[in-house]
Amino acid sequence: KSELCTLFLHADYRQGGNGSLLSKARLLFLANFPNRFSTVIFAEMRGVFDEQGRSPFWEAVGKKFFDMEFEDADRYTMISKQFISDLMPRSSLYANLLPKKVQKTIGKTHKHTVPAMKILQREGLMHNDYIDIFDGGPTLEAQRQHIHTIQNSRIVQYTRSLKKDDEASHVRVLMGNTELDFRVLRSDLLLINKNEVAVSAEIARALKIKIGDNIRVVL
To answer: Active site residue: 10, 110, 146, 148, which one?
Structure first.
C-alpha cells in the first residue's frame, strides 16, 4: 500500500481552497506516475488529543508498551516501523477494558483534521476498520483507480496561449504538468477540442510547459 502522508498548512493560509489544492495535487502526481505507487492508497487520520496536547489512546495503550513519549515514538516511525512489531503484544487488546473516555476516542478524528478527512472522503477513500496504533485515529483507503481526481483527470496538449477574445470560453480547472519536476495549480483554460487546450503565458511559465507539451487536467 502507498500512504498519503500528513499535510501541514499554516493557519494564515487555511483559506481560499489551499488545503484542497495541496491534497488534490498529490492525486494528480499519482495519476501521472502510477507505477511508482501501490494499487491501494491509504491515509492515517490524526486521532483525538486533549487540550494539553495528549492522546488519551496513547496514554492508555501505547505508552504502556513503548515506555516513551508520543512525539518520540512518532519520530521513530520515520526511521523504521520495526520497533512497533517488536514491542506491541501479539494477543488481542480488549477495548472494553479501557476507560470509557478512551473508548470514545477510538476511530475518531482530531477536530482540526476533520476538513482534511472530508476532502479524502469526497475523493472516495473510506474507513477500512483499522486505527492508528499510537493515537487511535481512523485509517482511510481506496483503490488508486477509483479515486475521483484520478478517475476524472486526463492528458491534453497545450497548443497555444489564451487570447483576449477567448475570455468568455474559459473554464477553471485543476491542472498540472507531467514531469517529475511537478507543478499544480487551479486556473482558467480554453478547451479547443477534446485533446487540445490553451492557457495563458503566465500559467505556462508557472507549470514550466511550452507549446506542444502535455498537461493533466481535471474537468
So the answer is: 110
Of the candidates 101, 125, 157, the residue with the CA atom closest to the CA atom of residue 45? 125
What is the DSSP-derived secondary structure letter of residue 58? I
3-state SS assignment for residue 42: strand
Alpha-carbon span 14 to 199, nearest angstrom = 27
What is the DSSP secondary structure assignment for residue 39, as one 8-state letter? S
The yes-or-no verdict on residue 88 having pLDDT over 90 is: no
Q: What does the pLDDT read at residue 30?
A: 96
**Is 110 among the catalytic positions?**
yes
Radius of gyration over alpha carbons of the chain, in Å?
A: 21
The string of pLDDT tens digits covering residues 155-197 is 999 999 988 777 656 788 999 999 999 999 999 889 888 899 9
The CB-side HSE value for 126 (13 A sphere, CA atoms) comes to 6
CA atoms within 13 A on the CB side of 71: 2
Where are any strands of DSSP class E within the chain? 2-3, 40-44, 126-131, 138-143, 153-161, 171-177, 184-191, 196-199, 214-218
Q: Quick one: pLDDT at residue 177?
A: 97
